[in-house]
Specification:
This protein is 81% helix and 0% strand. The chain has 277 residues and is mostly helical. The chain starts with a helix and ends with a helix. The relative contact order is 0.10.
Length: 277
């Protein structure tokens, strides 16, 4: 298919995706489930697990492999912008007052699945179906432990939003704990990947770069961004030029955190927390 044909097919795919998500959402609501859970279930239904299993020819024709790249790119843009908006509503002052609680919840949330993942790896490492001969036991333990520790941070943010917990003490605590968990797990994965490749610059880039990024954001960029407040008040709102500037910052931060080995949504989320309210 040509690029033009793929772009036109995308509109049809998006219609089908939105319709399926809303229909599944109506059913899920009857069982007390949030819309984001319904959307996840809808994705499974539209994928090879059901649609592709029952009607593989129609599914591959409706979702040709070449179009998946477009869908992935568009979804990443939406995800990054959404996490930036979540960050802009994040109540930093609440976390400062409950920093010890956030740390305790985060530690408990990552230690339990990490230890269970390490124990599972001990059972799987001898099975060549899961790991090749070159993988060391400690590498397998770190990999499975980190994989088990990573949370669906954007999904957590959606659930908190749909339950009306955004900006509350509980919602802020859950977001803070989830972000710390995911950041730690991605750093552990960076260490594992560095061990596999023999290039520990990967781990240094992810861990060191992430720390430097956060420090620069809150000590240098945040005070500079405060200058946008009087401009917004004078203009009576966000102007088109300011919106373009903010969107460029969001995309740049998402690119940077992904380039150093941390998920792009963290760059957007941290920038959102640094934005003036």
């Amino acid at each position: 298919m040509t690029n033009f044909e793929l772009s036109i097919r995308f509109f049809l795919q998006l219609t089908f995706i939105l319709a399926t998500c809303r229909i599944v959402g109506l059913i899920a609501r009857r069982f007390g489930q949030p819309q984001v859970v319904a959307e996840m279930i809808a994705g499974v239904l539209m994928g090879p697990s059901l649609f592709g299993l029952l009607l593989p020819g129609l599914q591959s024709q409706f979702f040709p492999k070449a179009s998946l790249t477009i869908m992935y790119a568009v979804s990443q843009v939406g995800l990054v912008v959404y996490m930036f908006l979540i960050g802009s509503e994040f109540q930093v002052d609440l976390i400062r007052r409950r920093l010890r609680s956030a740390g305790s919840v985060s530690l408990a949330g990552i230690l339990t699945p990490f230890m269970l993942g390490c124990l599972l790896a001990l059972l799987l490492v001898s099975n060549k179906t899961f790991f090749t001969e070159g993988v060391k036991t400690w590498e397998a333990m770190l990999f499975v432990g980190a994989a088990m520790s990573i949370t669906a941070f954007p999904m957590l943010a959606r659930i908190i939003y749909e339950c009306g917990l955004t900006g509350t003490s509980l919602g802020t605590l859950a977001l803070a704990a989830g972000s710390i968990d995911d950041a730690a797990a991605w750093c552990i994965l960076a260490v594992v990947m560095a061990s596999f490749s023999g290039n520990f610059i990967v781990a240094v880039s992810a861990i060191g770069g992430g720390i430097v990024y956060a420090v620069v954001m809150f000590t240098i960029i945040k005070p500079l961004l405060r200058r946008l407040e009087p401009m917004t008040e004078r203009n009576g709102g966000i102007s088109s030029r300011m919106l373009s500037f903010v969107l460029m910052l969001v995309m740049l931060c998402a690119w940077f955190t992904d380039a150093i080995g941390i998920y792009a949504v963290f760059g957007a989320f941290i920038l959102g927390t640094a934005m003036p309210r």
